[in-house]
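dumping these here so i dont lose them again. two proteins, back to back, each one seq then structure tokens. dont judge the mess
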Amino acid sequence: MSPSSLKTPLAETSAAERSTAPSRARQAYNSTSTNEVDFSAAARQLNSLQDSSADVDMKKVEALRQAIAAGELKIDTSRIADSLIASVRDLLK
């Protein structure tokens, strides 16, 4: 069998048909789409957490900014290390 005798779907379509295929696919999608998205429960929970601005104490943030700018911020590295170790232990359980 020679390669020229093999027919593929692409070879059987004309250039005009191939150029209009994406537009036909968009039309088919648009005519059946409902413009609705169904999120999982986990996605809804993550979204609600992201939208929450009540978790940020802006007065404390501003106080930290001023302390950093003035060079007065004291960082307790042992407390940070202890918290990281505790977090890792919780993750490994």
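---- next one ----
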Amino acid sequence: MTSRCRSPRLRLLLPTVTLALALAAVTGCGSVPAPGSESAADRSSSAEPAPDRAELEARASAAQLVAEHVWVTEAAGYALARQSVGVLGDDGFGSSYTAPDGGMLQLSVERRPHAVADCTDGSAPVGGQEPLVTCERDGEQWYRATESGHAYAQEQGDLVITVSGERERVDRATLRSAARAAHRADDHELDRVLPPAGDGSGRQPVERGDLPPVGDGAPNNGVGASG
């Protein structure tokens, strides 16, 4: 029997930051997976030489990610939108998987207690969150749903791993399959997911030539100006 409950601890079903990553994926993908998108089924064969771990760690650090917090999943017809990969909070991880029919899955990895897997408190939601209509245990994970979205969440050590999507676009069976397939990326998968070496992805500050070396650092608008 399905239980109904609401929790003030429960984060938004589609976290704001994760949703922003999802929108970025939509913009880049259109109706088909974007160039550079990867399916988990395309992961490297174990027969291939393992990527250098030190290089993987450096690439993760350059992207402000913790390599051990990078997770991947798979679902039939869905491919990873690599441009959606990014950091959540201080050291979490987020990514999106898209399908040609417009379906989208969001994968997030966050530390406890900033995120929770269960929804058993029973109190009213806070922060304008859409009320839960379903909250139930499903195997080793928790399934929760609002009128518009739904998600599966599980705890692994000090991490909470959540796979979510819109109910109109992603059915529960697909969501469950993706949630159960979620796992920490091995070195081959890290090599596919992480930005290439030397790709700053816009995170490095731009050096400006119009900032004075002394004073409050305000731009010198006269630099290079005529007359």
